[in-house]
Predict the structure.
Amino acid sequence: MAKTLHIRASRIEDAEAVGRMAGAFAAYLRNLGDMTDFRFDAEAFRRDGFGPNPAFSGLIAEQDGRPVGYLHYHFGYDADAAARMMFIADLWVEPAARGLGAGRALMAEAARIGREKQAGLLFWAVYKPNKLAAAFYEKLGAHYLRDLDFMIIDTAAL
């Protein structure tokens, strides 16, 4: 029997499923050597993704009505390109659902939303040892920005 895949906007009721998947994503990255203090969970999803000033928006991939993947995004601006851009903050598809088109469908819907909001670029980061993700993105036509290194600083430090 064919599995039905559906992409939709995240809802606050998705918090537990997204929190569970985010935990699996964190475990996957830790297994690759990422020692980040991963804090995103169902509570953070509810707190930061909804309300009067949400920090991000999201998409859910459902397979036969069950969440099997998610994508979080927010908008920004690239001054060099003089273009709006959509930043993909997180993309995860459960291993059992990979190869069925969920990741591609999530990215395609993000691109559609980006175009709707006049964003000319999708932008994201990939943990260097995550070769599986890099290969997936390259199959979509993405490429590395080889001349850029990302930097961060705690806002309390300045």
About this structure: The first helix runs from residue 15 to 31.
